[in-house]
Design a protein that fits this description.
Chain A: Keywords: Cell inner membrane, Cell membrane, Membrane, Transmembrane, Transmembrane helix, Transport. Chain A: It is found in: Cell inner membrane; Membrane. Chain A: Belongs to the MlaE permease family. Chain A: InterPro entries: ABC_MlaE_roteobac, Permease_MalE. The complex is a heterodimer of chains A (about 260) and B (about 250). Chain A has about 260 residues and is an all-alpha fold. Helix content of chain A is about 85%, strand content about 0%. Chain A has one domain. In chain A, α4 packs antiparallel against α9. The radius of gyration of chain A is 23 Å and the shape is globular. Chain B is of the alpha/beta class. Helix content of chain B is about 35%, strand content about 25%. Chain B is globular and about 55 Å long. Chain B folds into two domains: about 150 residues, P-loop containing nucleotide triphosphate hydrolases (Rossmann fold, 3-Layer(aba) Sandwich); about 70 residues. Classes of the chains: A mainly alpha (about 260), B alpha/beta (about 250). Chains A and B meet through α5 of A and β6 of B.
């Protein structure tokens, strides 16, 4: 008699417990994967050619898409601030808000999301395909460590490239705001740049670079980790790719909030 | 009595509670070619992966040249793996690099070193498997399945391993290309004195390349014998398998 109602009570807790244990196990696996990638990556043999190749893939070839994102966002931001500011005659805040908004938040986050879409997916698909076609097993039988050869160059290249790309994106985003303000909203170019210069702070740039490095870490880690654990043929690779992008997005947005809250909180 | 190269003793491995290997006992002698036959999912690949250290067996022992290799790690595992070459079922060539880098991968470990010498070595090993030097700079995806298999074979023999594992070497090839691979395996074993362990369900291939055949069924070796006895083994399971009948003790 009492078994059924008791079950009804316990079931939700069991479900919560199961997902909690699953989450902890996943965190453990990711932590182990990260530790192995970093520790093996820091010991020889090194793969400088692989590293350079990844810098090109992650950084250089992402520049067009990052540049376009930044210029449009900078211009749209300037227009919004102008329109909203005119209601209480605060149009002059455009350059200040554009520079702060781009450098502190939009630059790093948009670069992070764009590159995650481009790179986490590509990494997960490539390494996942290597997994399901036994290329990862072949690497091991040819006595080459997958962490050193595949994972570490990607992880280190992403941590290094993202800050550089955020610098470029910040400059282009500020340029986008300036272009719209001067060409469409009738701002004086010299004045605009003066205000911009006054509101650019080294601290903001530092925070942007730290965010970018953290995002780069998550982008490569999620791409490599989910690719490495892919299984079950083409569908498995598809799953790995999707999970890699979604989890990279979540980690980028979550860590962005945490860093912002820590610095300004 | 020939020298034992690999000795499996009571090898067991389960996945999610299902025993895939359930006490496998098998000896491979030095310089012999042994084929393991058995149904898909009977644990043939798992056996190879346990020997290579890609999977950890739950229990049992694996002796290589008299040395216990279960649980080997780090430098010792690397040294053990140096004795092995493996031909994967789907060839498992690295599609991001040209053929010659693939063939010499075991020598360079993926480093971009010694270009000229490595091309020469790649050329020699391709010649051994009957492939022309003009494919050196092609990518694996530009070759047919049969040629990919031969490139993979060249890659496996390039470091001159003592033992080569062949995972379904003829699967997915037409009968003529399959026989080319069979001939290559026979000549490698004879000319290079390599010990070969092949897993297959292609009976024509097993009869051609193996000196001895063992059958794996439900995680155990249920029969072993010389290849001539394959068709009169007196074992109903082996009979059903080699004749490909749907009716019999194997369901």
């Amino acid at each position: 008699m009492t078994a059924a109602p008791l079950n009804m009570l316990v079931l939700p807790f069991a479900a919560i417990g199961r997902s909690l244990i699953g989450l902890l196990a996943a965190i453990g696996r990711v932590a182990r994967f990260t530790g192995l990638t970093i520790s093996r990556g820091l010991t020889p043999p090194y793969y400088p050619a692989r590293f350079a190749e990844q810098i090109a893939h992650i950084g250089w070839f992402s520049l067009p898409v990052v540049g376009l994102t930044a210029v449009f966002t900078g211009a749209a931001l300037a227009q919004q601030i102008f329109t909203a500011g005119s209601r209480f005659s605060a149009q002059s805040t455009v350059p200040a808000v554009v520079v702060i908004g781009i450098v502190r938040e939009l630059g790093p986050v948009l670069v992070g999301l764009m590159v995650a879409g481009r790179v986490s997916s590509a990494m997960a698909a490539e390494i996942g395909t290597m997994r399901v076609t036994e290329q990862l097993d072949a690497l091991a039988t040819l006595r080459t460590d997958a962490y050193r050869y595949l994972m570490a160059p990607r992880l280190f290249a992403a941590i290094l490239s993202l800050p550089l790309m955020v610098l470029v994106a910040n400059a282009i985003g500020i340029f986008g705001g300036w272009l719209l303000a001067v060409q469409k909203l009738g701002f004086n170019s010299a004045n605009y740049l003066n205000v911009t210069r006054r509101f650019v702070s080294w601290d903001d740039f530092q925070m942007a670079l730290v965010k970018a490095a953290v995002f780069g870490f998550f982008i490569a880690l999620m791409g490599c980790y989910h690719g490495y654990r892919a299984g079950g043929g083409a569908a498995g690779v598809g799953n790995a790719t999707r999970t890699a992008v979604v989890s990279a997005f979540m980690l980028i947005l979550g860590s962005n909030f945490l860093i912002t809250a820590m610095v300004f909180g | 009595m020939a020298e034992a190269k690999i000795v499996l003793d009571g090898l067991s491995k389960s996945f999610a509670g299902r025993a895939v290997l359930d006490g496998v006992n098998l000896t491979v002698e030095k310089g012999e070619s042994l084929a393991i036959i058995g149904q898909s999912g009977s644990g043939k690949s798992v056996t190879l992966k346990c020997i290579l250290g890609l999977l950890q067996p739950d229990s049992g022992s694996i002796l290589l040249d008299g040395e216990e290799i279960v649980g080997a790690k780090g430098a010792r595992l690397e040294r053990i793996r140096a004795k092995f070459g493996m031909l994967f079922q789907g060839s498992a060539l690295f599609d991001s690099m040209p053929i010659w880098r693939n063939v010499t991968f075991a020598l360079t470990h993926g480093q971009r070193i010694d270009g000229a010498r490595m091309r020469k070595i790649a050329e020699e090993n391709l010649e051994r498997v009957g492939l022309p030097a003009r494919i050196l700079d092609l990518r694996p995806s530009e070759l047919s399945g049969g040629m990919q298999k031969r490139v993979a074979l060249a890659r496996a023999i390039a470091p001159r391993p003592e033992i080569i594992f062949f995972d379904e070497p003829t699967t997915g090839l037409d009968p003529i290309r399959a026989d080319v691979i069979n001939d290559l395996i026979v000549s490698l074993v004879d000319d290079l004195g390599i010990t070969a362990l092949t897993i297959t369900h292609d009976m024509a291939s097993a009869r051609k390349i193996a000196h001895r055949v063992a059958m794996l069924y439900e995680g155990k070796i249920i029969w072993r014998g010389p290849r001539d006895r394959l068709y009169d083994s007196g074992n109903p399971y082996v009979d059903q398998f080699v004749q490909g009948r749907a009716e019999g003790p194997i369901q």
